[in-house]
Design brief:
Structural class: alpha/beta
Shape: globular
Largest sheet: 9 strands, mixed
CATH class: Alpha Beta
Distance between the termini: 55 Å
Number of helices: 12
Number of domains: 1
Helix content: 25-40%
Low-confidence stretches: 222-248
Number of strands: 11
Mean pLDDT: 82
Radius of gyration: 22 Å
Order of helices and strands: HEHEHEHHEEEHEHEHEEHEHHH
Amino acid sequence: MTFIAKPKLHHPDLQKNALGYTRRDYEGAVSTLCAGCGHDSISAAIVRACFELDLPPHRIAKLSGIGCSSKTPTYFLGASHGFNSVHGRMPSVLTGANLANRDLIYLGVSGDGDSASIGIGQFAHAMRRGVNMVYIVENNGVYGLTKGQFSATSDKGAKSKRGVENTDDPIDLVGMALQLGATFVGRSFSGDKAQLVPLIEAALKHEGAAFIDCISPCVAFNNHEGSTKSFDYVREHNAAVNYLDVITGRKEITVDYAPGTMEVVTQHDGSKLHLRKVSMDYDMHDRISALTYMNQRAAAGEIVTGLLFVDPAPRDLHKHLKTSETPLNALQEDALVPGAAALAKLNAGLR
């Protein structure tokens, strides 16, 4: 795979944060995703959040699985640690890294296919164990790398680009995160940077399992039944000697609306998202109320966005396991291998 590097020259007047870094220092390679993809907006929000929080890039570890969303860590935090795992296995790889070196800031990026299908078990255990991480799902409801089939988060009744209606109920990762014990749960929209950036900043500062479900529309698979310019129609009527796709650029969809209000966002294919921001008097410390409120608004056809729940006194996996304050990768051999006497004492205590 070929990556396009950005020029290293910086304008001398670029704004710098407290560490002396510019926003460019938090960027990565040039994106190869479709023009107008919401995932790129999420990458930009991560860049801005890390810049504004004055985080040293070398103290951040970014991990991902497989899918369009899991390609995005290439496009941000180029000076950070990175690991692209196999499909659906990002949470377990991140957990192992976190247990070995608790001093890093862990950022896991996944998609609705990566987390709600093949990786749903891994997602569940990362949440219930309280792994200290920011877990972002870039949720577009389709499998973008394999021509836009329904994913497990697709809403019942939604139509595919072929006009096929989804008959399955969706998996709500936000509801799962709340039920499994995540101590920070939020949902946002890739086009609402005013909400998304501070939400990511708060998650990065949180000690515990922080989950953000980010609705990120796929601009490539928005063809509707009956269009003679759709990919399906052209393929059915084409006698070409080879099989090609040309994906044209789309303008990014953005919104800006006040807390407590609802916004109807028209997608590229004419479909509409009904987004509601939680009001200023919403109690974000009540887990049960958060679940009830989300279900009520979902029944009205709305997607609730914002910080849905936060535990003011969270405990992460290290506290549960009572691990060493010194990261395991920094311990000397005598601490890691204390000898036969220590093993005998441990075994005696288990009898």
